[in-house]
Amino acid sequence: MPREVVKSAECAPTPNFFSQAVKVNGMVFVSGQLSRDAAGTIIGKGDMAAQTRQVIANLQAILRAAGGDLRHIVKLTAFMTDMSRAPEAWAVREEFFGAHPPASTGVQVQRLTHPDFMIEMEAIAVIED
C-alpha cells in the first residue's frame, strides 16, 4: 500500500520523529496542529479564537499540500487546556465549516507541548485520488 508523507512549507516544520500528515489510499491523517506560524512563532497567546484560526489555517495548508481542503475533513479532534473556552473555538470553527461540520471530539488536557498553547487539533480527511 503506497504511503505518502505530506509536508507544507506554510506550516512550522515538524521534528524528524513525526510527519505533518500521511496520505494512504485517499485518506489523510493530519498530526496535531498547534498555533504556530511557518517560522514556529506562537500565535495568539491567551486568545483562544486567534489560536483556533491559526490551527485551522495550518490544517488547511497541509490539506492543500495533500491535494484537498477543509471540506475533505471527516473527523476532527480538538484538545484544549480549558473547556470553558471551547465556545470561542467552536465559533471560529463554524466560520470555516459552516452548516456541514465534520464529526468531532473535544477533549480537555492538562497541558499541551508549551504552556502558551491552548488548543491543538488533529484531523482525518478523505481525498479521492
From TrEMBL:
One GO term describing the cellular component: cytosol
A GO term for molecular function: deaminase activity
SUPFAM superfamilies, per database record: YjgF-like
Pfam families, A to Z: Ribonuc_L-PSP (PF01042)
Similarity comment: family membership: Belongs to the RutC family.
Full protein name: RidA family protein
Native source species: Falsiroseomonas algicola
